[in-house]
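Help!! Second protein's tokens look totally different from the first
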Amino acid sequence: MKLLFTLLLTSLPLLAADPVRAFIDDTQPGFRDLKSEDFTKVNSAEDTWSWKDGVLHCTGKPVSVMRTVKEFKNFEMVVEWSHQKPAGNSGVFVWATPASIEKLTAAGKPGLPQGIEVQVLDHGYTDKVKAAGGKTDWFGTNGDVFPVGVKMTPFPPLSPDGSRSFPRKHLAKGHGDWNHYYIRAINGEVRLWVNGEEVSGGTGCNPAEGYLCLESEGSPILFRKLRIRELP
């Protein structure tokens, strides 16, 4: 009995430190790959985006987006991403508005659309802002979700101004490593899982239909395993 009790005690810290994480099975019926033919140019340069051996490469220049050919309403999406330099900045736009996309396309200049942004930010960005003398309490590097020019009620915890849903846990890996995002967007509600655990999101999104966009914002980044399943 004493030996059994000792074994239980020694195993408890391991269990607490290594929780079981749930990853969505994107091989389930209905999921499909998002490939090059599913995307089209908005305001990026010709060489901003390139597909190589199933991996989408982004140079980060200019600040711009690439959008899906079609609009989506209710869906589940899986994407893996890896920043290639410290302080990298990018994002996934959910329900980007057609009007903002048309404006960017017509202008052909750097800029980002309106919609719900799922932040893709390297931890080194915090040090970069600090070094420049800026404040670092208004953003996070583990999966913020926030509205850009549209409506959304963020889930807590919130940024100081209440505009962003800050992640409940810090699970993102740094540049050079791969991160796994699972995004679920249903009936005006967006939820984000980072590396297997739900961390942030928001509800009351308006509009709740539009394009999906991948963001180029100044630093090279890789995307892979882009998968989507449309829902009723």
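Here's the second one for comparison:
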Amino acid sequence: MPTLTKNRLLRLLQHRWTDESDLKRALPGDAVSHLEQKVRDSEGHHSGEICVCVEAGLPLSYLWKGLRARDRALTLFGKLRVWDTEANNGVLIYLLLADHAIEIVADRGLNARVSVDEWATVIEGLRADLRAGRFEPGLIAAVDAVDRLLRQHYPLAEGQKNPNELPDAVVLL
């Protein structure tokens, strides 16, 4: 059995203490439905798919193995089937409350067209809002930023419709 260091124990406790009530404080009232509407509206202008996932704390198995938010975001990218779009242009916006971590995972079609600096700009904008406690406006701005990238690289032709390959629901864990 691995020995728990002080930092590891503190992280484990932080993730166990961060729960559904923290999710509700971060996204109160109609915030989730506003985000879902923003995703729905966005997807009417491009062929991409956007998935927003906010998680209170990592599962115990991740903590025990010392895994990070990026590991969880990559797993959820697969579990939520964000990778499963015809044009390989799905994007996961992942927020882990316990670690104050933000991850964006884009499928290979879009990732090949968007630079690391462009993704970093999206993340930094979201990070600034989150530090100020503006979760809903920050996530909406992140969806808008991803929307701009998808419109640039995967615009819909006149009269074309996005087949909506993924649910628009915000995933809360």
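Reply: Different proteins will give different token patterns, so don't panic. The first strand starts at residue 49 and ends at 55.
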